[in-house]
Design brief:
2 domains, single chain, Rossmann fold, five-stranded mixed beta sheet, five-stranded parallel beta sheet, 12 helices, alpha/beta
Length: about 270
């Protein structure tokens, strides 16, 4: 890192972008992922230098970053190339709610804004706790969260936890611990047997088609399909392990499980 705090940061996933904006440190961002959409002005304000598993190395280097922020093993090759080019890289790898809060605090420390990051993390922790307390008396609904459709992939750690916070019960909680998507592939027959009462779907980079889910062979027997309880959640607010998942993502789960009016009430804690 050339300077502390770093003055020129490139964010290759969107949760660090949103966090820096929330911390009031967005002036440090000089480049972002093409998937960054929160807050909306980021599309106008910051150059796009990457997808998720690929990046334009020349564009990144031309920005002369003091620090590049990456996420997970899926960006390991990008991180390697940047390190070889002499760039400082920090790779986050949060996969659960505790990891999200740690990411916020770590990022705050990296940019010299620890106090602001602590305040943000505590406010989000308090919100999650309020919602969990508000839903504690409800009979948990069985929930299938679909991260991808071909093959079927179940949700990951933070999504499974948020379902529980919202008063649901992930029908495959044991799979949420697996970081790799290939380890979360589910046979459609297992979903039928699990009989979820609610289906939540968020296909990264692709529009969810509830009618396609409902038309799968044998799925007419699933309570969620019979009752028309198939809900799409936009991937930017649920598949990114950052503030969006703890706010708009959690709210979307609450509405899907309990209806608009009750969901909004529970969201207020």
């Amino acid at each position: 890192m050339r300077r502390f705090p770093p003055e020129r940061i490139v964010c290759l996933t969107e949760e660090t972008v949103e966090t820096l904006y929330l911390l009031g440190e967005d002036h440090r961002i000089v480049g972002v992922s093409g998937y960054a959409v929160r807050p909306p002005q980021v599309r106008r304000e910051k150059p796009r230098v990457s997808a998720f598993t690929s990046a334009n190395l020349d564009k990144i280097l031309a920005l002369e970053p003091d620090l590049v922020l990456t996420f997970s093993d899926l960006q390991a090759e990008i991180a390697r190339d940047l390190i070889k080019a002499g760039v400082a890289v920090h790779a986050f790898n949060q996969r659960d709610l505790a990891g999200i809060f740690a990411m916020i605090r770590t990022l705050g420390a990296l940019v010299g804004a620890s106090a602001k990051a602590e305040a943000l993390a505590r406010s989000l922790e308090a919100r999650v706790a309020r919602v969990q307390a508000a839903t504690a008396g409800k009979q948990p609904l069985r929930v299938w969260f679909e991260e991808w459709d071909e093959p079927l992939i179940s949700g990951i750690g933070w999504v499974s936890e948020l379902i529980a916070v919202a008063g649901g019960r992930d029908v495959f909680p044991e799979l949420a611990e697996h970081k790799s998507a290939k380890d979360r592939i589910v046979d459609p027959a297992r979903v039928i047997a699990a009989a979820p009462e609610v289906i939540l779907a968020s296909w990264c980079g692709k529009k969810v088609r509830p009618e396609k889910i409902a038309a799968r062979p044998g799925w007419e027997a699933i309570p969620a399909v019979r009752e028309g309880r198939i809900h799409s959640i936009p991937s930017p607010i649920i598949l990114q392990p950052g503030p969006a998942a703890l706010t708009d993502g959690l709210d979307a789960i609450l509405v899907a499980l309990w209806g608009a009016e009750e969901g909004r009430r529970l969201a207020r804690g």
